[in-house]
Specification:
By secondary structure, the protein is mostly helical. It has a single domain, classed as Rossmann fold (3-Layer(aba) Sandwich), CATH 3.40.50. Helices cover 54% and strands 5% of the residues. The chain contains 20 helices and 6 strands. Strands 4-1-5-6 form a 4-stranded parallel beta sheet. A two-stranded antiparallel sheet has the order 2-3. It is globular. The protein starts with 7 loop residues before the first helix and ends in a 27-residue tail after the last helix.
C-alpha cells in the first residue's frame, strides 16, 4: 500500500521558483529569525510585536525547518510568506490594541470549547453549534488573517472593503491546485466556521506546523513547554475579532482545535470558566486519518516525505494527546465536561445535539433550522470521500488497538470490527457445483 502522490502542479511550481531564483526574478529569502523580524518591521512600518515570548518557539521552529523538513523551493517560498504574514499581523494587532484600548477590555466569559483528537468529528460538531447565533465563532478568513486591516469597515460602492475574504479565497484556490484532496479531508470556504489554530500560529505555536512540515524537534520542544503565553495572546486576538465583528461580548465564544488536548492546563488558566465538550472516535480511524491529513500537506512542501515516519509521528502524537487529556481531566469538575462520540452523531445527530444543549442549559429549538441548513450545505462542500488506511503508513490495526486500549475502555470507545482478509474460496458462489468450482 502506498499513500497518494502529490499534484503535478507542485512540480511545475518548484521548477518555476528554481528558475526564478536562478535568474533573480524571485528572491530567495532566508528563513532566519532576524531577517524575518526586520523585514516585517520594514514592510509594516511598525516595530511593536507585543510580548516577545513568541520569538523562542519561532527560533526552534526555524532550526527544525532547516535541519529536518527538507523543504523544496515551493515549501521555502510558502514558509517565508507564512512567517511574514504572521509577523505583520502581530505588528498590526498591537497598533489596534494601542489605538483602541476598549478591545482588550472585552470579557470572554464561559466559552464553549470542543476538545478532541484530529479527525474525531470536532469540525462537524463545531459547525453545528456555530449555526446557533447565540454563540460567537471564527470564520475561515479570520483564522487565516485574524487581524483586520485599517479601514476594513469602510463601505465602498455598497460593499465592505475588508480584503481578508478575498485573500482566503486565493489561498484556498492555490491549496486545491497543490493537492485537490484537501477539499475532501477538510471541506471549507472563506465564511465557513473555523477553528482558532491560526490564532495560536500567531505565537509560532501549535500542531499546524507539524501537520504541514516534518519538524519533530520543534514538536517535542513544544510538548515540554507551558503554552499559557500562546493562549493569552490567542484570547487577545479573539477580543480583537469579536470587536471587529461588532458582536456583543456577552455572546460566549465557540472554540475548537485538537491542540487543546495537549494544552488543557493553559487553556483553563486563560479561560477558567470554559465548558468542555470532548469528542471521541475509534483510534484506528483517528490515527489513519490524522496521518493521511499530515501526509497530504507534507508532500506539497517537501520532496522527501517518508510515509513510515509520518505514520509513526501521528501515532505517537495521537497517543500523547489522549494521555494528556486523560491526565488533565482528573482535576476538572465533571459538571464542566461532556463526552460526545463520533458514531453517536453519525447515527442520530439530533439526539446527540439535544444532549449537548442539555449540558449547556440551552433550548435547542431556536437553532434547529440553521443546523439543518448547515447539514444541507456541508453535503455540497464535500466532493469525494476521504480514503486512507493504516497500511499506507506502516501501522497495523493490532498495534493501535493495543496502545489505545485504556482510552477505549475509559471512554467506552469501541474499535470497529476487523475486516477479515479475503478467503482463498471467496470467489466461490453459493450454489456452485464441485465441477463448476
Amino acid at each position: 500500500m502506498r499513500p497518494p502522490r502529490r499534484s503535478p502542479f507542485i512540480d511545475l511550481l518548484n521548477a518555476t521558483i528554481r528558475a526564478g531564483n536562478k535568474t533573480g526574478v524571485i528572491e530567495k529569502a532566508p528563513l532566519q529569525r532576524e531577517y524575518l523580524l526586520e523585514k516585517a518591521v520594514s514592510d509594516a512600518g511598525l516595530n511593536d510585536f507585543g510580548d516577545n515570548w513568541f520569538e523562542t518557539p519561532m527560533e526552534v521552529l526555524l532550526e527544525s525547518l532547516a535541519d529536518e523538513a527538507h523543504l523544496n523551493p515551493a515549501g521555502e517560498w510558502s514558509a517565508e510568506k507564512q512567517f511574514s504574514h504572521v509577523l505583520r499581523g502581530r505588528l498590526l494587532a498591537q497598533k489596534w490594541f494601542r489605538d483602541h484600548p476598549e478591545i482588550l477590555a472585552r470579557p470572554i466569559s464561559r466559552p464553549v470549547v470542543i476538545v478532541g483528537p484530529m479527525r474525531s468529528g470536532t469540525t462537524r460538531l463545531h459547525r453545528l453549534l456555530a449555526a446557533d447565533q447565540r454563540f460567537s465563532h471564527l470564520r475561515s478568513f479570520e483564522t487565516i488573517s485574524p487581524v483586520p486591516q485599517p479601514g476594513f469597515q469602510e463601505v465602498i460602492e455598497g460593499k465592505i472593503s475588508d480584503p481578508r475574504p478575498a485573500v482566503a479565497r486565493r489561498i484556498m484556490a492555490i491549496a486545491r491546485l497543490a493537492n485537490p484532496r484537501t477539499l475532501s479531508i477538510h471541506p471549507t470556504g472563506p465564511f465557513e466556521p473555523e477553528e482558532e489554530l491560526g490564532l495560536l500560529v500567531a505565537s509560532m505555536w501549535g500542531m499546524k506546523h507539524e501537520a504541514q512540515w516534518r519538524v519533530p524537534t520543534y514538536a517535542r520542544w513544544c510538548e515540554g513547554q507551558d503554552a499559557t503565553p500562546a493562549y493569552q495572546y490567542m484570547a487577545n486576538l479573539l477580543r480583537l475579532i469579536g470587536w471587529s465583528q461588532q458582536t456583543s461580548s456577552n455572546r460566549p465564544w465557540l472554540l475548537k482545535t485538537p491542540q487543546h488536548m495537549l494544552d488543557l492546563p493553559a487553556l483553563l488558566k486563560v479561560f477558567p470558566d470554559a465548558r468542555l465538550i470532548f469528542t471521541h472516535r475509534d483510534p484506528v480511524k483517528l490515527v489513519g486519518s490524522a496521518a493521511s491529513l499530515a501526509w497530504n500537506q507534507t508532500i506539497i512542501y517537501s520532496d522527501k516525505p517518508d510515509p513510515q515516519k509520518v505514520g509513526r509521528e501521528w501515532l505517537r502524537k495521537t497517543e500523547l494527546k489522549v494521555q494528556r487529556m486523560q491526565e488533565a481531566r482528573q482535576s476538572i469538575l465533571d459538571s464542566k465536561t461532556i463526552d460526545v462520540h463520533y458514531d453517536d452523531i453519525d447515527r442520530d445527530w439530533l439526539g446527540a445535539m439535544k444532549r449537548v444543549y442539555g449540558f449547556l442549559e440551552l433550548d435547542i429549538g431556536p437553532a434547529l433550522t440553521a443546523m439543518k441548513q448547515y447539514l444541507s450545505r456541508s453535503a455540497k462542500l464535500k466532493r469525494r470521500p476521504h480514503r486512507y488506511s493504516l497500511g499506507e503508513f506502516g501501522i497495523t490495526d493490532s498495534e493501535v488497538r493495543e496502545r489505545f486500549s485504556n482510552y477505549s475502555r475509559t471512554f467506552d470507545v469501541p474499535f470497529e470490527a476487523r475486516t477479515a482478509p479475503p478467503s482463498q474460496f471467496a470467489h466461490i458462489k453459493i450454489g456452485q457445483s464441485l465441477e463448476q468450482i
